[in-house]
Amino acid sequence: MGEAERSVSQAPKGDIEIRAVEARDVPEIVKLDERSTGVSKCKYWRELYSYFTQARGDGRAFFVAEQQGRVVGFIAGEIRAFEFGSEPCGWVFGLDVDPDLRVHNVGTQLFERICASFKRAGVDKVRTILDRDNHLVLAFFRSQGMMAGRFIQLEKDLD
Known about the structure:
Blueprint: H1 3-9, E1 16-20, H2 26-37, H3 42-54, E2 60-67, E3 70-80, E4 89-97, H4 106-120, E5 126-128, H5 135-143
Parallel strand pairs: 4-5
Antiparallel strand pairs: 1-2, 2-3, 3-4
């Protein structure tokens, strides 16, 4: 049995619940993110949780996917307006799913939930930025109907 097959067959069973993030979820979010990126960003996720929960309902959205009491995915984003000449739209800042569950539509459920949240808040577009070499995440967002937009990201090293 291949590695991917082994991961899927060992995935826990049960329904996925998508719900608003709670303080108790932050350590699990840190672990999921570290598992994917190889970098522990505890302070970053604590600060993002604090920022997002200070004023719920103002276009900020931070959801977790939970299965049998365990956080197996998360998505965070907010509505931003007029940066770089953009009309108000939803931005996805972070998305991750337990690698053992990536073929079980957890990411799709999270993405649909945040898009519904943005739509209820009055916007009709969602955007994100990702590393062009992150083929897994790029394929996921394309599978959700996202494509290159009208903006071009530029950068310069400051040495």
